[in-house]
Amino acid sequence: MTPRPDLISIVTADMAAALAFYRRLGLDIPLGVEDEPHVETTLPGGFRVAWDTVATVRSLDPGWTPPQGGHPSALAFRCEDPAEVDKVYAELTAAGYRSHREPWDAFWGQRYAVVLDPDGNPTDLFAPLPS
């Protein structure tokens, strides 16, 4: 048996704010769960994304502390084309989410941008550049 990726978990200080952000990115997260200590959704293909409150994580690991500096991981959302990267970035920042990096044409052949979720986790937006 070979282990396979199944779930990524995001620790959040504000469940409602985190869920609102990821809903804007198209994740199908049930409504009415904003006060729950653990929420998850299954993406097409079966991979799951989960959110846990800081209190939930600390109940499982009393010594847990948030990571400091940089970012240990980031979710990346593929957009249809470079224009959609710019559009989604503009919509998120207009809604008050913080920009980490404005859209740019990356040397590896993608239009790329980074917006921070409500907990400061980087969220990448990207699309292949035309050949």
Q: What does it look like?
A:
β2 (38-42) and β3 (48-53) form a beta hairpin. With 131 residues, this protein is α/β, with parallel strands linked by helices. It is globular, with a radius of gyration of 16 Å. The chain has three helices and seven strands.
Query: What sequence of helices (H) and strands (E) makes up the elements?
Result: EHEEHEHEEE
Helix content: 10-25%
* Rg from alpha-carbon coordinates: 16 Å
Instruction: Tell me the number of helical segments per DSSP (H or I, 4 or more residues long).
Output: 3
| Mean pLDDT across every amino acid position | 93
Distance between the termini: 40 Å
TL;DR?
This is VOC family protein. The protein contains three helices and seven strands. With 131 residues, it is α/β, with parallel strands linked by helices.
SSE map:
Elements: E1 7-12, H1 15-24, E2 38-42, E3 48-53, H2 54-60, E4 75-78, H3 82-94, E5 99-106, E6 110-116, E7 122-128
Provide key terms for this protein.
about 130 residues, alpha/beta, four-stranded mixed sheet, three-stranded mixed sheet, 3 helices, 7 strands, about 25% helix, globular
